[in-house]
Each structure stands twice: as structure tokens, then as C-alpha cells.
Amino acid sequence: MSTTAEWRDRARRAKTELSALYLAYRDPRVPWYARVVAACVVGYAFSPIDLIPDPIPVFGYLDDVVLIPLGVLLARRLVPPDVLARCRDQAARGSAQGARPKNWLAGALVLFVWLFLALAAVIGVARALA
Fold this sequence. Notes:
This protein is an all-alpha fold. Helix content is 76%, strand content 0%.
């Protein structure tokens, strides 16, 4: 059984890996398609707004447990290994200093999706009742 210290270590490594992907996204040697995937994964992971809210039973944490790790795996495969290794070193140094990337565009995109879905639901209900 895993201890609390092991879970903290895993969380720390995940944050470092996401920070490395953020740095890789900004590196000009990374192909455009890898940049798009890395930006989406990092933006979603660091966004305060989830596509599926956490209070929804089971599905609320499904995105955190499944979508983010799958996105990280895909981005790691697309980013050149030498670039990723350098970015991991930079991220490890940055994590020790408390640096954390912010992606307001990704947060705004998730907020836009939620507003769009809410508007579509209101219109759907209004049409059903009319």
C-alpha cells in the first residue's frame, strides 16, 4: 500500500512533468502539433476550471485521473527527447524555486465551453417547454 510520502512524491513529479511540457511548448525546436498538444494539456491541468466539475460523482475526478495523464503521455511522445530532457531539468530547478506557469487562455477556453453548454441547455429547455 502506498504511503502519504509516496503520493506526495508522485504529485511533485507530475507537477514537474507538466512544467517541463510548458517549457517544451515554448521551445521553437518542438513541432507545431506537439506544441498544441502540450499547451492544451498544461492549460487544462493548471486551469482552475475543470471541463467536468469535481463535485459530480465519479466523473468529476475522471478527467484528473485519466485525461491529464493520457495527455501527458501523448505530449511526451510528440516532443523530441532531447528537448524534453532539457525542459525537465529546467522544470526541476524552477519547481525548487516555486515557479508555476499560468495559462489564462486555456482557462478562458474552458470557461467559454461551459458558458456555451449552459446556453445550449437553456435554449433546449426553453424549446422543450414551448
